[in-house]
Amino acid sequence: MPRTPSSPNDLDLFYTSVSASTTSSMVALEMELFSNFQFILLTLLMFLGGEVFTSMLDLLLARNKLIQNKLRSINPSSPSDESPTNATHIELALVSIPHSKSQNQTLSDNVASVRLKYTCLRYLTYVVLGYFVVVQFVGFSLVSLYMTVVASARQVLRKKHIKVVTFSLFTVVSTFASCGFVPTNENMMVFKKNSGLLLLLLPHVFLGNALYPPCLTLVLMVLEKVTRKEEFSQLLKNSNNLGYRHLLSVYRCCLLVGTVFGLNVIQFVMFWSVEWNSEIMEGLNLYEKVVASLFQVSNARHAGESVFDLSSISSAILVLFIVMMYLPPYTTFLPVREEEDDAKRKRKSAVECVVFSQLSYLAIFIILVCMTESKSLKEDPLNFNVLSITLEVIRQGTAYGNVGFSMGYSCARQLKGDGSCKDSWVGFSGRWSNKGKFILILVMFFGRLKKFNMKGGKAWHLS
């Protein structure tokens, strides 16, 4: 049970669970209310909901589908109700079905091609699994060591009664999964002077997000050089033919690295120029300002962890963050088009003609939330405003793992003072009505499944 005598709202508990499994980091309850066991459960949900882990399931399904399709193509006359037990004992290399002599060579080539593709998928699954485990284990070990050695960081956890192991595991998994949850109520604000901790977490912001494809390609290049195996060479040469959307060509990876670096430089320069001497930077020296600013802007397209209070950041920077959150994870400066024949481009299915673009759906969700929260928009405009709602919705419906930024809620900003109002470390959406929270749960799932609607809205033309 949570570390509080009061019983949390069931909807808030469900809301938090959905948020963790969809890596949305929507905080409806103060994080420090959860027990150590509940932190472990949330860690498991984030672990299973992360993009890298779910992509491994795609690879396993692709391998099984490859076998089934090949068996059907080799023996199309086989009964559809054939025992699945028998099928599982058929090795690709050992399929032997009578054919005419003229077909023997073609069949042999097809089987060899499918066998190579199957082996490539198997190797890729092992590489992704190794990457997934090693990166997080190294991160967990380094963060645990830092929290144990550095007294100031250790003291924070001791005051909050949070175990070092729990904090390290929870935070690394959350950062790698691009969730943005942190066991402390203040997120990373309480550690903004611990530049070493921020620098240890910063690589995980990228390794599980926009720079995952370049890092995966780099690992495959190293393995290909070391092992000289044909499978790794094929993975690099035929990255587009395997159906694994995170495996990009070397050229595309170079563009992606340049884009990520460029966008972060733009954000850093703008954030630095606007907020350098602002109130949020008080008490930080030059080095701490640079590291904290870099950590903050890097999280705008990624995990969404915050070292500064977003409600105190200027509106211009918030708009910049909204734009960055909306950009797809593999955005590149130069367009990279997949080859399609003209006939395919001209055809539009009935579904494509009615499906909206992602921006259209986000606009609809924002309008619906404004309708459900219309009373608060009128009575509490400093907390409830369209910019705050837009930030909250867009951070869930876009980006790679649903960026975890939120402007929060402050009783001090109420126009009409309410004696019953009590400040708490929850996200802005935690103060919404149940109807608004339900809509945002739908947005969480929409954001997590957005890859199925990436090409929506093509039937609409503005002129």
From TrEMBL:
Pfam families in the record: TrkH (PF02386)
Keyword Oxidoreductase carried by entry: no
GO cellular component: plasma membrane
Transmembrane portions of the chain: 39-62, 123-147, 167-185, 249-272, 307-329, 349-371
Membrane topology type: Multi-pass membrane protein
Keywords, sorted A to Z: Ion transport, Membrane, Transmembrane, Transmembrane helix, Transport
Domain of life: Eukaryota
Subcellular location: Membrane
Chief localization: membrane
Molecular function terms from GO: sodium ion transmembrane transporter activity
Similarity comment: Belongs to the TrkH potassium transport family. HKT (TC 2.A.38.3) subfamily.
Name of this protein: Uncharacterized protein
UniProt source species: Phaseolus angularis
